[in-house]
Request: fold
Amino acid sequence: MARVAALVFVVRSLERALAVYENGLGFERVEGPSDVPSLGARHVVLRGDDCTLELLEPHDERLPPGIFLRARGEGVFALGVDVSAPGQAAARLKQAFIQVRGAVGESAGPPGGRMFIAPIDAHGVLVEINAAADEPPAP
Reply:
């Protein structure tokens, strides 16, 4: 069974987004705000019962979050999914002509590596696939 583990939102203002998710809805701050130079953005990580939220405020329009904000406005930028058998998921995706990038195999996902489905193949959202934490990866 798959589980949504994380959502990444691109926002125009961290302060305004925190008013909704942290102050209004009660998500707890785990990390941030801090700069993420590789994304050209500031971010904050929040935790709920079954999911984490990462809020990205881009400041570089040349990098993916900034491009996303300019082209689409605020919204869901990425989705983290935990699956019990990452290698099998990758094989099923390949059969459906969906390209999976990154480490592919039963040990994919930390510490074995990360797998991604590009936004072009996942209806406009970057999808990160990880091994479910409750089931150890196969050797």
Remarks:
- Residues 14-24 form the longest helix (11 residues).
- The CA atoms of residues 61 and 67 lie 5 Å apart.
- The chain has a mean pLDDT of 89.
